[in-house]
Amino acid sequence: MSGHSKWSTIKRKKGANDAKRGKLFTKLIKEITVAASIGGQDVEANPRLRAAVQNARGMNMPKDTIQRAINKADRDSSSFQELTFEGMLPNGIGVFVDCLTDNRNRTISNVRSIFNKRGGNLGTNGSLGFMFERKGIISLAAEELDPEEFELELIDAGVEEIELEDGVFMITTPMEEFHNVQKKLEEMGLEPDSSELQRIPNDTVDLPLEQAVQIMKIVEEFEDDDDVQAVSHNLNVTDEVSDAME
């Protein structure tokens, strides 16, 4: 599968304006707090928390903000519930919407409203499972690393694919090997810019530029909701599409 969709997601996060960055910080803080509540506040012993903290650092979140989010785990995270929605957008684009919410009814209403207003169809849980596969996606600045030596170091840890673009390694792992690769990078003294489990489409769909931009605007509408943590889709986001969204 082309790396365009994964790479475009990273670039869009990196290039977020101040308003978008504020929303990303809010979502990252929520994920850190929930991860600390579920798996404990020890970053080294909690893989989900470790990934959340790495993502926060990759977005240049201050250390004291990260620590406050961890400390909130005991008092603020018990009311959060994880919800996942899946459905179809126009032109045959499948989409998953992952949420963390303290108000189930509000989130269901908001997500359903976007599907309805934008010509989509909200499906039942499991209806799009065949279209996506959960994989670990890690981005890491290449700096002075030798690509061949770096790849050899990671092969035994369970890496599926390594791509190098614009000075950044994009590392793909099977879901079950995700934490092994994280640990290997730590042993090598390397800290990723981002590290997360994503829903990767088995096949992507190419659309004309205008239709692709319309889909990405719907994706952004989902992402703008405070309860939405991640949106996954099977549109092939080319550089042309990414440029049109800037």
Write the layout of secondary structure elements.
Layout: H1 4-14, H2 18-39, H3 47-58, H4 63-71, H5 73-76, E1 81-89, E2 93-101, H6 104-117, E3 121-122, E4 132-141, H7 147-155, E5 161-165, E6 168-174, H8 178-187, E7 194-201, H9 209-223, E8 228-233, H10 239-245
Antiparallel strand pairs: 1-2, 1-3, 2-8, 4-6, 4-7, 5-6
Helix pairs in contact: 2-3, 2-4, 9-10
Which superfamily, in CATH terms, is the homologous superfamily of the largest domain? YebC, transcriptional regulation domain
The low-confidence runs, each spanning 5 or more residues with pLDDT under 50, are none
Tally the beta strands: 8
Architecture of the largest domain, CATH level 2? 2-Layer Sandwich
Radius of gyration: 18 Å
- Summed over residues and divided by their number, the pLDDT gives a mean of 88
Which strand order spans the largest sheet, edge to edge or round the barrel? 3-1-2-8
- Helices, by number, come to 10
Largest sheet: 4 strands, antiparallel
Question: Strand portion, in percent?
Answer: 15-25%
Fill in the CATH topology of the largest domain. Alpha-Beta Plaits
Structural class: alpha+beta
Overall domain count:
3
Choose one word for the global shape: globular
Helix content: 40-55%
CATH classification, class level of the largest domain: Alpha Beta
Instruction: Give the SSE order as H and E letters.
Output: HHHHHEEHEEHEEHEHEH
* End-to-end gap: 24 Å
